[in-house]
Design brief:
Helix content: 25-40%
Number of helices: 14
Structural class: alpha+beta
Bound molecules: flavin-adenine dinucleotide
Strand content: 25-35%
Distance between the termini: 19 Å
Radius of gyration: 23 Å
Number of strands: 20
């Protein structure tokens, strides 16, 4: 087995989820030399399995998590401006009924049980309105509209619901394509000089005087490599504890709590573009979200997950829980026959000793460990929504250790392809169709939503669909796949159809297999060309 040495970098990051890639981008932009190792594909774990919302987290107000909610609310519009292609405003419809209950062990529940014991866990309408007022005002809004009340009896939003739901509140949050967010952060980091290594597992790391000696293994060839770095960042998500214990052999007492969340995807259940926020009799909430034009996304669950090495899956019980939950609201019951896909992810939450999985904090915690030499930064928790702020907080720690002067820079700097106005998607689609008349509207929209202004580079010079090379189905062409391989670290079909896009919902198994075979050949050509 070969073992090669590499140069010394300032920062070595373990984990190519949103936190690792967000930190890599921020650090590279400050002039630090950065290496990042991801054992699978970019965003292959939690960061492609979220509910895909840039949100303040309305329900966290129940826990008085005002810092987290405020930071996330403010951040929504910063992020929207930086990536108008992959994120957009969304309206949320919260049907109100008087028996609505929230979780029973929140500080709000405890307070209400003292001051209004007759409510027995129910939430009065004024309290929901107060929560939404706070939500509207805590973070300031310029782009997103505020809350309004809806009469469900006479509105398209009420049409798919059972008739007993007469009133709803409608408020704003945002949608984001989570795995594309990670991939674009990685791409931006690489354009700023970071070395992004996918399918590269960190097998051990130890301090050697003032440096970290990190050993990685190529998970496809088995070859190993040694890297040196001045600082190590453990952004292993669900594996953060495993890395501390088995790769770094540290006896840190910080723990991570693994909470699985599953989603199901059904054929489209309603015709408008708003999302539903449903509250269950168990005090939990779920969302039903318009998804990929023809589908509805429903989630999520909260279940303890013991072992990060056990791949999370939506169990039949979780699927039935989500189906029953949604069927308490929709006029037509949602059945398992309508489910076309499901996915599941594990939240790597900081273990704050909370009693239930639902109650465990969603805030992030950063811990620097300098036990005898080069510094280590362990990342616990966090949200997709707060990834950029988490990266800034991580950089505060990193720059203090490495004596770097350059300050925060990512607010206001767009991600690749995002250099156009927040409401500019239709204009970009129209322009694209003028320049490339062979594109259908759905195809042009998909490309703009994926790549923003970079689309022109993917389609450059094409006068007809045949100029884009092989057609893999569902408008996926050779030109797009090559772009993803050359600029976004895609190696296999699953990277392309489940993380760089969601075309897996539309392509057949045979089409995906054909794409995989083509990509394998292409990779071999690229490898030979690089030698
Ligand atoms: C069901 C669910 C719904 C959610 N919904 C939302 C939402 O709507 N909005 C929101 O803001 N947040 C949401 N979140 C939270 C958000 O998804 C996570 O906080 C975030 O994705 C965590 O990112 P991460 O980078 O820490 O972890 P990950 O994305 O898991 O990345 C860690 C990476 O480290 C890699 N790794 C581990 N060990 C090694 C090793 N030894 N060598 C190399 N690589 C290694 C893994 O392969 C993995 O890719 C949700 C989470 C879940 C589970």
């Amino acid at each position: 087995m070969s073992q090669r040495l590499s140069r010394v970098s300032d920062v070595f990051i373990i984990g190519g989820g949103i936190n690792g890639c967000g930190i890599a981008r921020d650090a590279a932009g400050r002039g630090l030399s950065v290496a990042l190792a991801e054992m699978n594909d970019i965003a292959s774990a939690t960061s492609s399995s979220s509910t895909k919302l840039f949100h303040g987290g309305l329900r966290y107000l129940e826990y008085f998590e005002f810092r987290l909610v405020r930071e996330a609310l403010v951040e929504r519009e910063v992020l929207l401006r930086a990536m108008p292609h992959i994120a957009w405003p969304m309206r949320f419809v919260l049907p109100y009924h008087k028996d609505m209950r929230f979780e029973s062990d929140t500080p709000t529940s405890r307070l209400l049980s003292v001051v209004m014991p007759w409510m027995k866990g129910r939430r009065p309408a004024w309290l929901i309105r107060l929560g939404l007022f706070l939500y509207d005002t805590l973070g300031g809004r310029k782009i997103l509209p505020g809350t309004r009340t809806l009469d469900l009896r006479n509105s398209p939003e009420g049409a798919p619901l059972q008739p007993q739901f007469a009133k709803a509140y409608e408020y704003s949050d945002c949608w984001v394509e989570d795995s594309r967010l990670v991939s674009l952060n990685a791409r931006d980091a690489a354009m700023r000089g970071a070395q992004i290594m996918t399918r590269t597992k960190v097998v051990s790391a130890q301090r050697e005087d003032d440096l970290w000696r990190v050993e990685t293994e190529d998970t496809e060839t088995g070859s190993t490599k040694v890297h040196y770095a001045r600082m190590l960042v453990n952004a292993g998500g669900p594996w953060v504890g495993d890395i501390i214990q088995t790769k770094l052999r540290s006896n840190s007492s910080d723990g991570v709590r693994l909470v699985r969340g599953s989603h199901i995807v059904t054929r489209k259940l309603f015709d408008h573009d708003k999302c539903y926020f449903f509250q269950g009799t168990d005090g939990r909430i779920i969302f039903a979200i318009p998804y990929e034009t023809d589908f509805t996304l429903i989630g999520t669950t909260d279940a303890e997950h013991e072992d990060p090495s056990k791949a999370p899956e939506c169990t039949p019980e979780e699927r039935d829980y989500l189906l029953n939950f949604a069927s308490q609201y929709f006029a037509k019951p949602v059945t398992k026959e309508q489910v076309v896909w499901s996915y599941s992810g594990v939240r790597p939450l900081y273990d704050d000793g909370a009693s239930s999985a639902t109650a465990a904090t969603r805030d992030y915690t950063l811990k620097v460990d300098k036990a005898g030499g080069a510094p280590l930064l362990n990342i616990f928790g966090g949200k997709i929504t707060t990834y950029r702020r988490l990266a800034e907080a991580a950089m505060d720690k990193i720059t203090a250790e490495l004596s770097v002067a350059k300050g925060n820079w990512t607010a206001g700097v767009t991600l690749p392809g995002g250099d156009f106005p927040v409401d500019g998607v239709s204009e970009l689609v129209a322009e694209l169709r003028r320049n490339y008349p062979f594109l259908t509207n759905a195809w042009a929209l998909r490309l703009v939503r994926g790549y923003g202004t970079d689309v022109a580079r993917i389609l450059e010079g094409a006068t007809g669909a045949e100029d884009l090379g092989r057609d893999f189905g569902a408008t996926l062409t050779e030109a797009e796949v090559l772009w993803l391989m050359e600029h976004e670290f895609a190696k296999r079909a699953e990277d392309v159809v489940w993380r760089r896009s969601k075309l897996g919902l539309r392509l057949s198994k045979d089409e995906i297999a054909a794409l995989d075979a083509w990509m394998a050949t292409q990779r071999e050509h690229m490898r030979q060309a690089a030698e």
